[in-house]
Amino acid sequence: MTRRGFLKGTAAGLVGTAVASKGLAADTGGAAPRIRLSACDWSLGAGGPGGLEVAKRCTLDGLEVSPGGPADRLQIADPATRAKLKEAAAKTGVAVSSVAMGLLNECPLASDPRGPAWLEQVIEATADLGARAILLAFFGPGDLLEGTELKAKEADVVVGRLKDAAPKAKQAGVILGVESYLSAAQNLDLLKRIGSDSVRVYYDVRNSTDKGYDVPAEIRTLGDRICQVHFKDGEHYLGEGKVDMDGVAASMAAIGYSGWVVLETSCPSKDRDADFTRNAAYARKLLKIPAK
Q1: How far from 198 is each of 123, 126, 205, CA to CA, in Å?
Q2: What is the domain partition of the chain in residue ranges?
Q3: Crossing angle of helices 152-172/184-194, nearest 10°?
């Protein structure tokens, strides 16, 4: 199921707590960095309270959730929606790793007049529910690249809107994570222009591989500017495709990454629960996370 298809067909919410990166990790009293595993609700094909149940069956610690489809007021802004999700989180013990604003792909932050209001709504909802990271998607119509070159006008608007949203995010204790096809250097330039530690990079290992970037080197370059990480490898199980997963793991260890790794994986066998459980087991072994 595609992200676009899921967002059109399913309204989702969020609940729980999240730790996003080395710079965002909760105080562990000097303990070794922890990594926890989550999955995207659109990849699971299950959102809301039901998505938390599915994530639990798949041995996951969390769920990355969508705020609902485009509307003046997003579904996640409804306190009643959040209350139901809180109840489900308490029941399942599954946290929300992050909120994913995939709707920005079709309704780009650079051009949709509702964008600033959506940011405010999701920041408020994320803080209310104890989650920490918000994925801001820049693909499809929202892509910030034309070939390899930055779309200057669109980037200027995005910089301005994120500059305006950053103080609200900081006050709420929330991080805005830019997920895009930008290179590490382009990402760092964008973050420099925004000038806030409350805006960081949401790094996707397969997207960057597809663009021809040296993914392990990029992870080292971005360092603690990475707020969260997507693991996926097209139609393959993790470790069987084109992503250098060993290099990814070594680079994540080198920068001291801690927080959430979110599976945006496919289901080669068409058995969702079995495939996500398999990918979770692979990720735990790769990243030296204790088995569940």
Answers
A1: 11, 14, 22
A2: 3-287
A3: 60
Query: Cα torsion for 240, 259, 184, 200, to the nearest 10°?
Result: 140
Q: Which residue do the tokens 């034309």 mark? A: 146
- Using CB atoms within 10 A of its CB, is residue 241 exposed (0-12), middle (13-18) or buried (19+)? middle
Per-residue model confidence as pLDDT tens digits over 29-60: 444 448 999 999 999 999 999 999 999 999 99
- Rounded alpha-carbon distances, angstroms, from residue 128 to 3, 14, 16, 122, 260: 25, 10, 10, 10, 19
Token digits for 207? Answer: 């997207």
130 — pLDDT class (breaks 50, 70, 90) = confident
> For the segment 157-196, what is each residue's pLDDT rounded down to a tens digit?
999 999 999 999 999 999 999 999 999 999 999 999 999 9
- Residue where the block lists tokens 């967002």: 7
Q: For residue 160, what are its two tokens?
A: 């301005």
CATH architecture, domain 3-287: Alpha-Beta Barrel (3.20)
Instruction: Return the residue matching tokens 């809301």.
Output: 48
Residue 292 has pLDDT above 90, yes or no: no
Residue pair 62/35 in contact by the 8 Å Cβ criterion: no
Question: Which burial class, exposed, middle or buried, applies to 171 when counting CB atoms under 10 A from its CB (0-12, 13-18, 19+)?
Answer: exposed
Query: Is there a contact between 283 and 263 (Cβ–Cβ < 8 Å)?
Result: yes
CA–CA gap between residue 195 and residue 189 (Å, rounded): 10
Residue 260 has pLDDT above 50, yes or no: yes
Contact between 131 and 16 under an 8 Å Cβ cutoff? The reply is: yes
- For residue 151, which phi and psi values (nearest 5 degrees)? -80, 105
